[in-house]
Design brief:
Shape: elongated
Helix content: over 70%
Distance between the termini: 113 Å
Number of domains: 1
Number of helices: 3
Number of strands: 0
Structural class: mainly alpha
Length: 108
């Protein structure tokens, strides 16, 4: 429905303009309200995801804390007793030679 604005009276033009302004204001308010609701929903979903991640991490931590056995390959290796060191005659000869070098440097 196209109206020729020139055919309208001044009062009709003013009423049309007033109705258009009211319609525009209403649409803007609705858009703002829907945007705010969308932002609130996004924030709620983000918070829910964060809470799930925290709960998952806490459960994992509790599981690790309550374990009676060591956790992981390195922990098992660290809990093993070291074997006795074996010293060969070559090692002893090298150690004696090194100690003689240090002794000669101290005397000089």
């Amino acid at each position: 429905m196209l109206l020729n604005i020139n055919e309208l009276t001044l009062e009709q033009k003013r009423a049309t303009l007033k109705a258009l302004k009211a319609s525009i204001s209403e649409e803007i308010a609705n858009k703002r309200q829907s945007k705010a609701a969308l932002q609130l929903q996004k924030a709620q979903t983000a918070e829910a995801k964060r809470q799930v991640a925290i709960a998952k991490a806490r459960a994992k931590l509790e599981k690790l804390i309550n374990k009676t056995q060591p956790v992981g390959r390195l922990a098992i290796k660290a809990n093993k007793k070291p074997s006795k060191a074996t010293v060969t005659t070559l090692d002893m000869l090298e150690a004696n030679e090194i100690s003689r070098k240090f002794a000669s440097k101290k005397q000089a």
